[in-house]
Amino acid sequence: MRLGLIGLGRIGAFHAQTLADLDAVDSLVVTDAVPAVTKEVAERVGAQPVDSVAELLAAGVDGVLVAAATDTHPELVLAAVEAGLPVFCEKPLARAVTDAVTVARRVQESGVPVQVGYPRRFDPAFLAARAAVESGELGGLHTVRSTTLDPAPPPAAYLAGSGGIFRDCAVHDFDAVRWVTGREVVEVYATGSDRGDPLFTGIGDVHTAAVILTLDDGTLGVVSVSRGNPRGYDVRLELHGTADSAAAGLDDGLPLRSLEPGVTFPAGPPHDFFMERLAAAFRAELAAFTEVVAGARPSPCTVQDALEVAFIAEATTLSRQEHRPVRVEEVRP
């Protein structure tokens, strides 16, 4: 299988190495807006460098991965779809929800498979959490708690173009809650604090946020996200039901220090970055895309899934701004 990869920044370069290591990938074509980056990554992973997206699309690839800047996602996804090529697109489909709706509509009309990058769907513990809900072993769910704490904020330029903490960071929590529970979010209430940090104050964003989600069956979701957790990268999901409780993310790398006398859990060292914490999930996610390209499976995370998450992010952004509960239906175009 011959794949094309567009965008070789932090996540794109990481994907390049992962793809090069997959048995299903025979050859890889790569390109980036910065020619020197294209050359360096191509040499490191043994890929073919090309100078443009058009050249990549014409290079005989069987599928395309989009890991470029968010603002380019709509154009790049649609260019690949119009060429009849299956696409893997890093989240989100678009920065603006109206653009995401347009992309989703055109993708659905085309019939070309598109997979959106939400790696927690491929993490072994999150898979087990979904299975526990589906089997009914937890009883009826009443509370779901999802956590994402980054060790440190991304660069200022990235934050300025990210769309805010709900659209950029908490979307992983929103997707995990939808996917694991199998339910839809109908209402949100969000709040946040910039912690007096001018990095966030100046762009109207927040450093730390909390969201209450109401699901369509009455289950409550509690989402906690932050751009600064010096102890490490913390990703967890707790499920509380009428028969049992369970959690994903409670391994020895959990970046949390117990104050209970004599307790040695977690033994550490703490997870320090998302690419380390979710390495196995990223590999499984891209392996799944090779199966999508081969026609062996449908997309495991569709544009419609991504669109539903975008609506939740839009609703939470509005909720924080207006200090009120927001029904998700309010933000649907």
Automatic annotation (TrEMBL):
The keyword Signal does not apply. InterPro entries: Gfo/Idh/MocA-like_OxRdtase_N, GFO_IDH_MocA-like_dom, NAD(P)-bd_dom_sf. Gene3D superfamilies: Dihydrodipicolinate Reductase, domain 2, NAD(P)-binding Rossmann-like Domain. It comes from the Bacteria. Residues 126-245 form the GFO/IDH/MocA-like oxidoreductase domain. Residues 2-118 form the Gfo/Idh/MocA-like oxidoreductase N-terminal domain. Keywords: Oxidoreductase. It holds the Pfam family GFO_IDH_MocA_C3. GO terms for molecular function: nucleotide binding; oxidoreductase activity. The keyword Oxidoreductase applies. PANTHER family: BINDING ROSSMANN FOLD OXIDOREDUCTASE, PUTATIVE (AFU_ORTHOLOGUE AFUA_2G10240)-RELATED, NAD(P)-BINDING ROSSMANN-FOLD SUPERFAMILY PROTEIN-RELATED. Belongs to the Gfo/Idh/MocA family. This is Myo-inositol 2-dehydrogenase/D-chiro-inositol 1-dehydrogenase.
